[in-house]
Amino acid sequence: MGTSFGRGGATNFQQDLVNADCIVIQGSNMAECHPVGFQWVVEAKARGARVIHVDPRFTRTSALADLHVPIRAGSDIAFLGGIINHILEGGREFREYVANYTNAPVIIDQAFRDTEDLDGLFSGFDPETRSYDPASWRYDGMEVASNAGSRDRRIAGGEAHGSGGAKLSHGDPPNVDPTLEHPRCVFQLLKRHYRRYTPELVERVCGVPREQFLEVAEALCQNSGRERTSAFCYAVGWTHHATGVQYIRTAAIIQLLLGNIGRPGGGIMALRGHASIQGSTDIPTLYNLLPGYLPMPTAGSHGSLRQYLDDIRLPAGYWGRSDAYMVSLLKAWFGDRATADNDFCFEHLPKLTGNHSIFPTVMAMLDGTCKGFFVPGENPAVGSPNAGLHRKAMARLDWLVVRDLVETETASFWYTAPEIETGELRTTEIPTEVFLVPAAAHTEKDGTFTNTQRLLQWHRKAVEPAGDCRSELWFYYHLGRRIREKLAASTEARDRPLLDLTWEYPTGGEHREPSAEAVLREIGGVGPDGRALPGYLELKADGSTACGCWIYSGVYADEVNQADRRTPGSEQSWVAPEWGWAWPYNRRLLYNRASADPQGRPWSERKRYVWWDADQGRWTGYDNPDVGATTAPDYDPPDDAQAERALDGRSPFVMQADGKGWLFVPDGLDDGPLPTHYEPLESPVTNPLYGRQANPLLETYDRPGNRYNPSGSTVYPFVFTTYRLTEHHTAGGMSRTLPYLAELQPEMFAEVSPELAALRGLVNGGWATIVTSRAAIEARVLVTGRMRPLEVDGRVVHQVGLPYHWGSNGLATGDGANDLLPILGDPNVHIMESKANTCDVLPGRRPRGPALVQLVEGHRARALDEERGAGAQAAEGDSPRMGRERP
Amino acid sequence: MSVPRGDGRSRARGEVVPEAEFRSYYGRPVLKQPAWTIEVPWYFAAGGLAGASATLTLGARLAGNHRLARGAGTAAAAGIIAGVPLLVSDLGRPARFLNMLRVVKPTSPMSLGSWVVAGFGPAAAGAAAADRLGVTPRLARTAEVVAGLLGLPMATYTAVLLANTAVPVWHEAGRELPLVFAGSAAASAGAAAAILTPAAAAGPARRLAVAGAALELGSAAAMERRLGELGEPYHQGAAGRYARLARVCTAAGAVTVGLAGRRRPAALAGGLALLAGSAFERLAVFRAGFQSAADPRYVVGPQRERVGR
Amino acid sequence: MTVTPLPTPTFGGGYDRQAGPRMGFFTDTSICIGCKACEVACKEWNLVPEDGPLALTGDSYDNTGALGANTWRHVAFVERQHEDQGLRWLMSSDVCKHCSSAACLEVCPTGALFRTEFGTVVVQADVCNGCGYCVPACPFGVIERRQDDGRVFKCTLCYDRLKDGLQPACASACPTDSIQFGPLEELRERADRRLETLLEAGVGEARLYLRDETGGVGGAGAFFLLLDQPEAYGLPPDPVSTTRDLPKLWRSAAVAAGALAAAVAVALVGDRR
User: Fold this and answer.
1) Contact (CB, 8 A) for C232 and B25
2) Is residue C135 within 8 Å of residue C144, measured between CB atoms?
3) CA nearest B14 in A: which residue?
4) A763–B13 CB contact, under 8 Å
5) In angstroms, rounded to a whole number, what is the distance separating the alpha carbons of residues C44 and C67?
6) What is the reported pTM?
7) Between chains, do C33 and A765 touch, taking CB under 8 Å as contact?
8) ipTM reported for the complex, 2 dp
C-alpha cells in the first residue's frame, strides 16, 4: 500500500464500508476475525451492496456473503491479475481517474523487460545475489535515486504496515503519454503484463470456474465509476504469504484502475491482525523503522544526519519535510542535549548492519550467537512459524524474559515443550534462565489503541493491576530509570545515548506509574513555546520543535487528549471526526482529493466527499481534505517549489514524489514493479505461467529443522492453511486460559472436505495426524462441506484448514498448527508463509515420544527419494520442472 | 399420533459434519430431560397407595368394617409417611420444602398437590395413630373423613402433574394417565389392605384390588393405543421393561388375590405382586417420559404435522 | 420508566398488557455471524459457570450444544447443502423465549418464577427449591436444574440491567445487531419490515418464529427471524404451553378420582362381616 499510494495504512475506515456498492473480501475472514468491524459490511449489504468472499474455505464471512468463491490458497495474484486483465481488455477502467491520478501515462525506461519477456523475471536480476537492480524500472527521462542497493534501507519504505512512498529523484517531470497509447507507458506495460491472465488461466491456476471468476470481475466493474464504488477488505490472509506484499499491490492496481481509491465506499481496508498492530508499526516494534516510518539509519551510508536526510528526503510531497520530522524526533528523545552542533544526537541512534528481523535472530539463537531474548506480549512457542524451531532456539539462550498476563508456552517451554516428550530437549540440559514478568492487562492501565483504520482511541484504567502485574510503560520507564541511575557516573561514550535521553515523566500512585498522557503529549509534539502542536506542518528542522512521532502530531492539539474524544455518533456527522483521533491530521479517508475530479468537483452527487469551494478558495467536505487546504485544482508548481508545494493541484497521492497512485512501482519493491503470479514455495502444482516456479527472491532458511517440502511431492500432496477462530486470541494465552472462551472451542481440530476424509479414512469427530517436513501434529477432525476440493490444472487439490490457537498450557490444550510451518521470508518485509504450504494427512492420533520424530523423518526421506527419482528422470531428457527447481 | 421415521441423529463420528436434518439439530433433544430422580415414581406409588387406602378406610368405616378400616388406615399412613421423605429428598434444595406452601397455584398441579399432601398427610397418619392407640376417637373420625376425601386427589394429582408437561408421552396421555394412576392406586390399596386385614374382613379389599388392576391394565392399554407411535417408549428400553413387569405383576397379582385371596399365603403373594405391579407402572410411566423427551422425533413430529409442511 | 412490578401470579401467569411496555428480543438470524459474543457476554455478566466438558462435539462450530442451566445464550450452527443455493451455513443465537403464556412460570409451585414489570420471566434464586417441575414443562427445553446447586437457572433477560436502564448483555455485545432489544411492539414492526425486505430480495425461506400471539405459547418475549424450519435449529415447530390443556387434565383427574371412589364403594357394597 505504501508503494502504491504513499501510506501503508488502510485507505478508508470501516464505517465507510456502508457506502460501498460492492465489497470484495479476500485474504480475510472478516466476520470471524473482525466481527465488530464486520457490522459495517452487514449494514452495506442491507443497503444493497453486493458482498463477495474469495477464500479457500467457506467461513463465517462466506455465510453472510452473497457469493463465496473457493480459491486455491496461494493463487490470489493470478485471480486478481485476471481481474486487471478483464478491466483492461474490456476498456472498463475509469479513464479520467486513471489518466489524471495514477502513473498510467508515464513512459518507462526502454531497458525495462517484463516477466513476459524473461519467463518470470524482470530486467535487472542478479542470479548470484538473487536480487534485482531496479535501474531499468525507472521512469523514462528521470534520474534514478541511488538507493545504494541496500535492501535493508529500502524495506524501511514499509510495505506491509507502513507509510512512506518510495523515492523518485527530482528532475524534469517524467515523460508521459496522456493518451496512454505509448507502448512503453505504464498503462500499456500493465496490459501486456496481464494479457495471459485470462479467465481460462484463472480457472487453471486458482481452481475457480471461469463463470464464477467473471461474476466477480463484472461485479467490480459494474460497481465502479463515477456513480458507484467498490471496496476491498484484506487481512493476514494476504499479508501472511511470503509474496503477500504483491498480493496487496495487485488489489491496489485494480482499485486505481477502477477509480476506487480516495472515494467514499471505495478503498482498500487493511484489517490488522489484532489490537494496535497498526500502532505497533506507527511507533514501531520493528527493527528497521523509527517512529512515523522514518527508516532506521544504516551503518556505512549514514555516518551523519546530513547524509541520512539527503537519502530519505523526497523532492516533492510530504516526505519533502523529512528533515523536520527527524530532527523533531531527535529533539523529543534527547531534548536539550540535541543541538544543531552535535547533529541533534544522531550518532546516538543504532545503525543497521543487516537483516535483524525475527527469523535471522532465531537462526542466530540456534547458532549460539544471540544469547538473550526479550518477549513482551508474544508467544512464539505457539504463534510463530515452525514454533518447534523457536523452542529449540530458546533452549540455547542464556536468558529469556517473558512479559505476559499468564505463563505462556514460551515461558514454560523448558518443561512443557513437545520436544521434551520426544526426547529432543531435556529440561536438565537447557541452560536458559527464564524470567516471567507479570504484565497488566489493558483494563489495568491507561493508554491508546491504534486500530486498523489508524484511529487512536484512549482507554482508561478501570482497576489496579493485581499483585506484581505492571504496565509496559511502568516496566520500561523504571527499567530505563534504574539503568540510568547505575550508569550515572559513567564517562563511557557508549553510555551517552542512554544518559542523554529525556527520561522525565510525571509518575503517580503507589507504584509510581508514569503518566501515559504525558507520553502521548510528547508523541504529539510541542513547539518552541512549549505548547502542544496542532500537526506536523508545524514541525521545524532547526530544533525548535520536538515530536515523538510526526504522523501522530496533533494528537494532543490544544492541550487536549484528542484520542480520548467520545462524542456519540448520533451527535456528529457519519464520518464521526470527533470520536478518537486518526493519523494524519484526524483524516479518516486518505487521498480523498481523488473523490473530486481534476477540476475539484465531486465525481457524482452520490459519491460526494471533499470538493473545491472556489468562492472560499479552499477545499471543503465531510472530512479533512487530504491536499493542501488552499491548493487550487489548477495549481502548477513553480520550479523551485519544495515538498507538497512541488505537487500540482491534481495530485491526490500527496506522499508520493509525483503525487500519483502507482500502478507500476519503479522503486521501492525488491521483487518487481508489477505483481506476478508465482507458486508458493511448497505447491502441489507447476506454475503454468512462467519457468519460474516460485518467487526468485524468497528469503529461505533451508537448514536442519526447517526443511521445505518439495513442490509437487506426492508425499505431501495436500495444501494446508492456518488461521484463527473468533473464540480464541492468536496463540491462545488470553483465551485458552479462560473457561468462557476455552469451552467454545475446546480442542484443536482440522477441517477437511468429505472427499479428503474418504480418501484418507478420516471420520468426523475422530483424529487426524498432519505431517510436514518440520513436524507432525494431531487434531480432531471436522469433516465439512465447507471445505471443497478444487480442480487445478486438471488435477484435484485438497485443502486442509488448521486453526493455530492451541498449545500445552491453559484449560483447552492441543497441538500447535504453527509447528508445521516453515520459516520463510517475504523479500520485502520478511513475513512468513502461513497460508499456503503442503502436508500429508493420516488417520488417527500421532505417535508419542521418539516415534514422532521418526514419522517426520520418514516422510522427509520418502520425499527426497521421490525428488531424486524425478531428477534422474529429468536428466534422461524428461523434464518435469516441479520439485527440483529452487528459486 | 404419527412420528417421522429415521433416527435424525447422524451425530459426531459420522462421515460428515452431519447436516442438521429438517427435524432435528444434530439429533439433539428439543426438550430437557426432567430433573426428577428415582424417588419420584416411588413417591407416586406410595402416594397412590396412601390416597386410595385412605378412601378405602373411610368407606370401610362407613360400611362398618372396622377391621378393614384399620388395615387400610395403616396402609394409608405407611404410604404417606414413606412418601413425603421421598418427595422432599428429590428437591434440589430439600431445606426449602416448605416453600411449596408459599402460594396456592391452580396452574401448578404440584402446588395443589403440595396442599393436598399437607392436608392429607397429618390426617391419614393422625387417624391411623389415633385408631391404633384408641385415643381422641372423634378427632380420629374427622381425620379419617378428611384423609378419605383428600385421598382421591392424592391418588390422581400426580398423573396430572406428569401430564401437565411438554413431554409428549405424558402430555398426550392426559386423558388416560389419571385413570392409570387411579387404577394402580386402587390395586395397591386393595392389595395392601388384603395383606394387613384378616381375610374374613378383607373381601372388599380384594375386590378393590381386582377392580383397580383391571382399571390400571385397561386404561394403560387405552393410553398406549391413543399415543400410537408416541407411545413407543413403553416398548423400548427401561420403560418397556417396567411396563412389561407392571402388566405381568398386576395381572398375576389380581388373579391370585381374586381367586385365592381368602387364603393367607395367596393374599400375601398376590398382594405383593399387585404392589410391585403398581410401582412398576409408575416406573414405566416415569421412564417413558425421559425416553420421550430425549428423542426430538416425538416432539417435532406431531408438531410438524399440526402446522403442516 | 415508571412501571409497577406485577404481583407473583397465582393464576394464569400470562402477560398482562396493562403492566407497561413489554421488553424483549428480536433475534435476526440472517445477520448472525456466529461469533458467540452473546454467549460470553451473558456468562460474564450473570456469572454463569463454564458448561463443560472441554471436548469437541463435531457438530460444526457448536461446542455448547444447547441452552441450559449454564448456557443462557446458545449459538446454533447449521450446515446445509441446498440443491439450488449451494452450501449454506446458518447461525442463530437462541435464548429463553419469555413466553406470554410461560409454562415454567405457571407450573412453578413456589412462585420462584415470576413475571417482571418488563413482561419477562425470571427465577428468584432465593425462593426456588429445586422441585424441577419447570424443566419438563418448558416446550423449548430452556430451563434446567444446575447439578451442583439444585436450583433451576435460565436467562433473566438481564433483569438487573433492565432495572438500571441498560440493555441485556448479549444485545450489547452483538456486533451485527442480530440480537435486538427493545419494546416488543417496536421489535415486531421492525421484524415485519425486515422479513418483507428479505422476501423481496428472494430469500423465500425467511420466516418469523414466535412473533404472533396466536401460537401455543401466546407469542413470546423473544422471537426470531429464521432462514429454515425451526426444527433445523433445534426449535419446536409448534410449541404449546402445557397449561393450556390443564382444565382438561383436571377433568380427567376428576373422572379418575370418581372411578376410584366408585371402585371403593362398589367393593364395599354387600360387604357383610
Assistant:
1) yes
2) yes
3) A764
4) yes
5) 16
6) 0.92
7) no
8) 0.92
